[in-house]
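This part of the workshop introduces the protein records we will be handling. Each record describes a single protein and holds just a pair of labelled lines. Instead of coordinates, the fold is spelled out as a row of discrete tokens. To make this concrete, we reproduce a full record directly below:
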Amino acid sequence: MVEIIPVRLLIVDDHQLFRKALETPLKTDPRINLVGTAADGEMALMLSRRLTPEVILADLHMPILDGFGLLERLRQLPGAPPYVLAITGDSDPMSVQRALAAGARGYLLKDNVTEENVVSAACAVADGGLYLDPQVMDGLLSQQIEPDLRSLADGLNDDDRRLLCCVAHGYENKEIAARMDISIKTVSNRLSLLYTKISVKNRVHAANFAYRCGLVNLDDVSFDGGCDFYETCP
């Protein structure tokens, strides 16, 4: 029998009834270790230092410190910060992109939330993946969004930029894994997150994004393996 290692989860929402509605079933789910709840981002920061959750399920719109502020402050903590699952009633694709660009690893809609999709999302994110509410995904795919490319590029972290440069240089997942010293599965998960962050659907579009934003110069790109992307990319 495979041992289940529960995901350490912290819930952050300013609505007490909503917190309780999630807290009750999650407390008895063997896949989740609910380490605590908080009513705002400041309280969540304090608890995250003490309780060390792997995943924080955070409302984007809260008093004192909202979800976007929480994402920013978590990045400033020493060590590896917990992953953040955004939860909100806002399904607007631009809000989704803003949350992902700020560092959220998932996006859930309150109207669609269930114990099962919270658990699925928390487990996926704790494993290094990305989770989007199906309605959110449909919205991203069905609407033609013209994002501010520079703004999206500015929201990428160093690993995102290195990964994007690898794609622009034509490297396959196995080569990227070797160059970045990560697993092939992690490469695949990070690519999925990167595509969503920059609003593209595949490698070709991602490479085009890199060129258009000036992250990669066509003159620097070599598809014969002779160019080290660390020499030409951030």
Remarks:
- The first strand starts at residue 7 and ends at 12.
